[in-house]
Amino acid sequence: MKSFLADLIEQFRAVAFMIPASIGGLVDYLNQLQRGSKAWSIMSLFSHMLSAVFFGWMSGIVAFEFFQSVGMVAACGGAGGFLGARLPNIILYGVLRINRRK
């Protein structure tokens, strides 16, 4: 039972990286709405948040594996969430020269 609880607590740590990532992704989405570069859509918000949470989780895990402090891990998760939603756009527009906004 103790090992089960220890594993459960370890899984909650991984979820904790997603909280700042989702906040960073939401801030990025609202920023793009306010600038007018995105139109409001629930599917657009969902895909934006999914990308933000994934990249925020990934950057939080990397910071955790490099033995950073809890604050640094949370900051990396938030920054990963904010920038993670933009990474696919950077790859598509900058590297592959594909314009999805026709």
Give the SSE map:
Blueprint: H1 2-16, H2 18-35, H3 42-65, H4 70-84, H5 87-95
Helix pairs in contact: 2-3, 2-4, 3-4
How does this structure look, described?
With 102 residues, the chain is mainly alpha-helical. The protein has 5 helices and no strands. It is elongated.
Counting H and I runs of at least 4 residues, what is the number of helices? Answer: 5
Low-confidence stretches: none
**Proportion of helical residues:** over 70%
Largest sheet: none
End-to-end gap = 56 Å
Mean pLDDT: 80
Radius of gyration: 16 Å
Overall SS class: mainly alpha
Give the strand content: under 5%
Order of helices and strands: HHHHH
What form results from the Cα inertia axes?
elongated
Query: How many individual β-strands?
Result: 0
Task: Summarize the entry for a quick read.
The chain is mainly α and 102 residues long.
List keywords for this structure.
about 100 residues, mainly alpha, 5 helices, about 80% helix, about 0% strand
